[in-house]
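User: hey, got a sec? need Cytochrome C biogenesis protein folded
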Amino acid sequence: MFGIELVDAAFLPAAMVALLAGILSFLSPCVLPIVPPYLAYMTGVGVGGLKTGERSAVVPALFFVMGLSTVFLLMGMAASAFGRVFLQYQEYLVKASGVVIVIMGLHFLRLFRIPFLDTEARMDVGDRGGSAMGAYVLGLAFAFGWTPCIGPQLGMILSLAAGGAAVERGMTLLAVYALGLGVPFLLSAIFINRAMGVMNRIKPHLKLIERVMGALLVIVGVALYTGQFARFAYWLLETFPALALVG
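Assistant: Yep! Here you go:
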């Protein structure tokens, strides 16, 4: 696709993990509750104004997703470039990444707490509500600054991106992660009233979602450290040969 060969042995399972991580990031305890206020701020109306359709949140939400996607794509490119520079040490880097990812996963499983991940590093974007450019800047700030919620998941995807030599691979993995995080945000803006109802039903289960995210981090971390991630990738391609045609 687009003349770029993206599929290597580990790309497909990595892309699946990236998509799931993006969705779980959206559903995480400190992202999901702020979706309605963010949409209201970006459109320049209150939450009540969103419910009554006083102003559409779709365009601002689109620019917000573009903003966070810009940062994620740059991160993916940087991670792949880093992996290429240290290609001779890649085996050790992957194992180290696996250990760090497992530790972060245990934090989300609440087996212990890491103070750094319990603090928020938000960027002040000033009074930019109600404009598309303001929404774009807010997306940039969100991607850079929302450390407690998306930091560990993002770190996991960056580790997977650094495991491949192709810059396109890293950028694509981060694009898939942005898709998992951004599409639910856009759908919330399009179907705002229904989305708020769904969010209210999900809120009692946020701790469970956090633990699912922790379990995913632990599984991926262990798989990276032991080499099982690559073995699973080869098994996937051998079992479903048609997947090799993707790209």
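Quick note: The longest helix spans residues 58-85. Let me know if you need anything else on Cytochrome C biogenesis protein.
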